[in-house]
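Reopening this one. Same input as before:
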Amino acid sequence: MKNEPPAAAKGAAQTPDLSHIAARDKAEILSQALPYIRRFHGKTIVIKYGGNAMTDPALQQDFAEDVVLLKLVGLNPVVVHGGGPQIEGALSRLGKKGHFIQGMRVTDEETMEVVEWVLAGQVQQDIVGLINVAGGKAVGLTGRDGGLIRAKKLKMIDKDDPAKEHDVGQVGDIVSIDPSVVKALQDDQFIPVISPIGFGENNESYNINADVVAGKLAEVLKAEKLMLLTNTPGVLNKAGELLTDLSAREIDDLFADGTISGGMLPKISSALDAAKSGVNAVHIIDGRVPHAMLLEILTDQAYGTMIRSH
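Same output, byte for byte:
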């Protein structure tokens, strides 16, 4: 088990001054990452990018640099992004207020237009630009590109009354994922950046929870890791303590006793499904910690919760 993490960074991330570290010590620090680079070289890492890491400028830059570094040392990162705050901001400017049921955004036709404009336009292109400026080669995709994500209307059953079904509008349930376009980009050394928008049999658009898309994509790509960036330290018990290492059975128990609820439900459900479907490890990490992704992958420190596949 990894060591307990330090407290999450407060406020904007600050770039540390490393000038006082001797060159020999810097080389030693780099060498500590070698076993992890060797272990994960050539493996696919699916990253769900969201939370503060998407809205704090310093953390945005950290994320882009981390993704580029992972690609340069031989890993294959695939980014799936959310955009809840940006969607909420756009809806507010139109005089609309977001409404959620069991962690899912209710999406009428007008809201779907906003979701597509924000996710596939503004948010995606911002991420692509940041990665490219950091030295990578990112390409933006939606579920329509290459027939990536086929979807149908989500049937949401009430968690307390199985006989009751909620209508959440153009919210999608994944029918299938064809990863051909993602694999083609990876083979050409590009970094795919995917908006969680699927399409139906009548060419209608569906808003799909980004955690769900990341989890299913990790399964289909047979990813080594699925990493979910959040605004929490990870999975907490009822006493507010971080649980750093969990099995699928332990996660089931946390669902049963109500420890996991609200907006964490789709996130943890996706993580659990991925772990049960062959993704070796799922990490729910604190995106408020600068370079949390690198620290989780390339060191023995824990910066969140790991869900083991076995």
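So the earlier flakiness isn't reproducible anymore. For the record, The radius of gyration is 19 Å.
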